Amino acid sequence: MATLAELVTLRTDLNPTEIDHLQRLLGSWSLMSDLSFSDLLLLAPVAIAADSSTGFVIVGQIRPNNCPTRLSVDLVGQTLEYNVLEGASTHGRSESWFLHHEVFSPSLRIESFPVRFEGNEIAKVLRLTGGHQHTVSLYEQLYADAYNRLSRMVVEGVFPFAEADVYVEGSPRVGDGVIVVDEATQVEFASPNAVNALHRLGIFSPPEGRYLVDLSDELVVVAKSLEVVEPLVAEVGRRSEVAVLLQAIPLVASGEVTGAIVLIRDVTDVRRLDRLVLSKDTAIREVHHRVKNNLQTISSLLSLQARRVSGSEGRSALLEAERRVRSIALVHEVLSREPNDQVPFDDIVTSLVAMAHDSVVTEQSVEIVVEGDLGEVGAEIATPLAVALAELLQNAVEHAFALPDAAEEVDGHWVIRHEELIGRVHLGLRHDDEGIEVVITDNGRGLPEDFSIQTTTSLGLSIVRDLLQSQLGGTIEMLSTSAELGGGTVVRFTVPLNSPQ
């Protein structure tokens, strides 16, 4: 479905500031729909050059939140001819008019009023009524009066307010509770739900006829809204036990402030759940932080132990174990910052590349280039993926660039070939709907002729193979590239998104 901006740009002559005004109206007219218990349509005149038809294009539609809708279909994007609206009652008249159109029930009645901006009529609002038989209550009559005052503000170009942007997700609606006050904040009426919300604030006296500021100092936001003539939102409450959300919308007629509509919603339970979620997130972050600290302690102990081992084989084994523990710690470090189900794996890749750089012990300079990204990956695969990637990067920088393959013996002396002075490792990353693909290439000495990842006796590569194939349900292949392509090794592995756990 096209957006309002797309519709009016393609099919009307409205300018950007007029479009912004209509956007603000769509952001706030749920209040008018609820107060009038009616479906509302927003119509903009079709530009003759943009459409072969004439009339109005429907650019907005809203249904009331507190009663059944009169329209079972979405009409945004459809066009109404000019003659369809002939005879529609304008705002302020009492006569009714039946809308004759194939998508509407014959029993529906229409009220039309213009939307003005800077003195110009830029659109129309249609209010659809009828179709439901019920007794009109006193509160519905009071709501209708508030709706009429708001619609007059639309006609005068005052509503929606130009600088206000308070119609956000979670804002109160009429069904939550509504209070109407005069220009001095004296309460004209309050709905039963509004009275209940006031009770949560410790206000038990009947509000009708009282001034809000006399009922509670916390309700001063309403007086402030009338003073600045702008909608204001505030959350008030008694200590941390109660939370009530207030939204004050000034009512203006002929340039004079005549009162305000105050929407009020008890959000105590919502805030309690927010605190529980925040507390849970904090606890999860703390767990990951402690796991990271413990792993770093183990890593440090392994490093210290390696320094005390005299044999090179034992020292190498301890350092490899230390590196694997450190790669797991990187995952928990990221999770300790944001304990989501998805992990921003690019942060981990950066640390793994830095770790591989730090471990270079050959006489050659090794350059690691990263291309692409993995974005966010599931937390359940982040740890095995990090360990596998760390192992393969380490294998590339440690074994691909050994000195004998980077030099040649001449008259009993090793001479380094100039074209091999810099070792290069390219890390290609891709994450799409099918899964994850990682390709690691180097310009080193390549693999032995009889090498197979499935039968390798290398502990590190065996760990990588088992993690990728058994735990993540992926595939891995390793092969040497031809001399014509520069030589070296290519490692490619994939992990499906629906990998078994």
**CATH homologous superfamily grouping of the largest domain:** Histidine kinase-like ATPase, C-terminal domain
- Output the CATH class name of the largest domain: Alpha Beta
Instruction: Quickly count the domains.
Output: 4
Shape: elongated
3D architecture notes:
The protein has helices at 4-11, 16-28, 30-36, 138-156, 192-200, 212-215, 220-228, 268-308, 312-337, 345-358, 379-399, 459-471; strands at residues 39-45, 56-62, 79-80, 89-90, 109-117, 120-129, 178-182, 187-190, 232-236, 244-253, 256-266, 342-344, 365-372, 376-378, 407-410, 413-416, 422-431, 435-442, 475-480, 489-496. The chain has 501 residues and is α+β, with helices and mostly antiparallel strands. It folds into four domains: 4-156, GAF domain (Beta-Lactamase), CATH 3.30.450.280; 174-266, PAS domain (Beta-Lactamase, 2-Layer Sandwich); 278-339; 343-501, Heat Shock Protein 90 (2-Layer Sandwich), CATH 3.30.565. It has a six-stranded mixed β-sheet. A hairpin with an 8-residue loop joins strand 19 (475-480) and strand 20. Helix 3 (30-36) runs antiparallel to helix 4, helix 8 (268-308) runs antiparallel to helix 9 (312-337) and helix 9 packs antiparallel against helix 11 (379-399). It is elongated, with a radius of gyration of 35 Å. Residues 91-100 and 403-420 have low confidence and may be disordered.
